[in-house]
Sequence to fold (314 residues):
Amino acid sequence: MKEVNQSSMTGFILLGLVEDPLLQVPLFVLFLLVYVITLIGNVIIMILIRIAPRLHTPMYFLLSNLSFVDLCYSTAITPNMVANLLLGRVVISVSGCAVQLFSFIVFGTAESLLLAVMAYDRYSAICHPLLYSVIMTGKVCMELVIGVYICGILHAMLQTGVIFRLSFCGSKEIPHFFCDVPPLLRLSCTDTFINEIVMLFSSITIATVSISTILTSYIYILTTIMRIPSSGGRHRAFSTCSSHLICVSLFYSTGLVVYLSPKLKHSFGFERVTSVFYTVVIPMLNPIIYSLRNQDVKGSLKKTIGKCLASTHN
Fold:
């Protein structure tokens, strides 16, 4: 089979989420709606945290960054997927594929690490309430968030650089709706063993740091909560963590299946469905989860809406 490297290729062909014409139009409408809800939900969260004084705390500063990451994460993937559903097969240039993969990895890594930082924030608030304002200062929060983005960029540079040093086979068809690492590895004519080792090592490192931080934080959190004498106090303490726990569970239950097991021969359908969940659905669900389960967010939202309605009547 003739080898084609990135210098001689004009681009890849994304086959999309489904190839059945009967499903493409309803799925186009569905995912366009999902993307609009994602945009509105995350933008509302960011604006609300910016303008509501009661939300000017480390926890909500981190939440606003999670909304920003979710917004960028979804935008890197969903518009292209929606276009795919509307137009059928879509050609994406090699450079466009590299940019999409780079953006996807940056914000996927940032989300993973940001969830760990948010777990540490809850640990500091519940286990060391008297020192919380000293531990989670504005400077510390900013440094942690900047560190999250730097790690995301470095991880993306490593992964994207390794992938696009490969030579690709004659087939340019990617049986997916975006440029992802596993399907790109399958198109390569060259031995991908080193690439898979690099992918596994970097992904495991990121996942280990994030998951171990989350698990350790919640072990201490649960231990502290169990020592609270009143059931009401325990409920209030745990309620500040429930939204975060749901977001963590959703994110890791799907992402780890694909990215920590590249050698598993998943069906293309399985990969695509799993990818839809963590690239398209979760960024929409996160702001909804925090809005519905967080009294401060709900209270601030109602107050802001009330002020807007009052100003329109005056």
Q: What stands out?
A: Residues 21 and 114 are 39 Å apart (CA to CA). The first helix runs from residue 21 to 51. The longest strand covers residues 12-14.
